[in-house]
TrEMBL record:
This is Hydrogenase maturation factor HypA. Ni(2+) binds at H18. One of its GO terms (biological process) is protein maturation. Keywords: Metal-binding, Nickel, Zinc. The keyword Metal-binding applies. Pfam families: HypA. One of its GO terms (molecular function) is zinc ion binding. Belongs to the HypA/HybF family. Zn(2+) binds at C89, C92, C105, C108. Involved in the maturation of [NiFe] hydrogenases. Required for nickel insertion into the metal center of the hydrogenase.
Amino acid sequence: MQWVGRREGGQIKEKPVHELTLAESVVAIAETAARRAGARRVTRVRLALGLLAHVETDTLLYCCRLAARDSLAADADFQTERRPAQAQCGDCGCDAELTALPARCPRCGSQNLKLWGGEEMKVVDIGIS
């Protein structure tokens, strides 16, 4: 796990950044695919992030660019797309696709929702040259 420091009240507080660990894995996947294809570089990496994946998109993109330095993906364009979660309202029974949090039932406004799906993070495609 990677750690970053941040100043708070004159002291440095360390906290783990799991996006950096995820980014390192993404770059490794892209490099492996490029090498298998005999490519010289990775030009694009597109990721799908589920709504409930607990991944901060901007942080992940920054970490991908950081992890890609000195690799075949050094100049790659890293892109993300959010995938929805599914929900069923415990009050009115409505089934819905959720695209944002916090979530409410689109029919009755209740927050009494059973959620599923939307937890994935995967490489959708890789551009190479």
